[in-house]
Amino acid sequence: MRNSIVFSIILGFMFLITGCNYPTLQEAINNDIPYKVSEVIHTKKIDDITVVLYTTEAKGEEFSYIKEPVLGVAFIKGNNKEGWKNDGPNGWEHYQNENYTIYYQPYTKYNEQGELLKDFDVVYGEINNKDIQKIEIAKQGMKDFTETKMIKQGNKRYYLGIGYHPEVRAVSSNGEVINQ
User: What does pTM read for this prediction?
Assistant: First the structure.
């Protein structure tokens, strides 16, 4: 009896120290993102953060008009040795556009002294216009655009880019910029 009490105290203390870490990235995705993940579209590693682009369903009466899956992005921190946990922020976005959508999610972290540790933006969306051949991003105010990752999942196309307040443009195969 005494051994089981000591074991329970030690186990509880370990849980408090480590927080809610999961042994695998997939378990953190399944259990630590506050929305039910329907499908993981893409993951991208940035230092010790894994950016997860996923779809979920819009729940609630106020979203009853949304029938299709919505896009979300999560930031999962960790590794297989120390465990994985959602490092926020969390959210999903949705609006209709016949060409392509643009969603931004900043990720900013400070230490206890208020010093900036990480600061980047994720820009992502769905590509609906079949004439769009690539998505490019550039630092806000700059004209130096670079191609970003395009992901094909089933019959849908998405993109995911990392930058600092990036501007986004879509380009056709003949080099024409397609407005949103």
Answer: 0.83
Q: Could you tell me if residue 50 is inside a domain?
A: yes
pLDDT of the residue at 13: 39
Three-class SS string for the chain? Answer: CHHHHHHHHHHHHHHHHHCCCECCHHHHHHHHCCCCCCEEEEEEEECCEEEEEEEECCCCHHHCCCCCCEEEEEEEEEECCCEEEECCCCEEECCCCCCECCEEEEEEEECCCCCEEEEEEEEEEEECCCCEEEEEEEECCCCCCEECEEEEECCEEEEEEEECCEEEEEEECCCCEECC
Q: What's the chain's length in residues?
A: 180
Q: Calculate the alpha carbon distances from 163 to 52, 82, 127, 129, 154 in Å.
A: 16, 27, 19, 24, 27
Examine the pLDDT at 120 and tell me if it is beyond 80: yes
Q: How many distinct structural domains can be found in the chain?
A: 1
Q: Is residue 159 part of a domain?
A: yes
In a domain, 7, yes or no: no
- For residues 123 and 161, is the Cβ–Cβ distance under 8 A? yes
153: confidence class by pLDDT, cuts 50, 70, 90: very high
Cα dist. 63→59, 72, 92 in Å?
6, 15, 12
Domain range for residue 65? Answer: 22-178
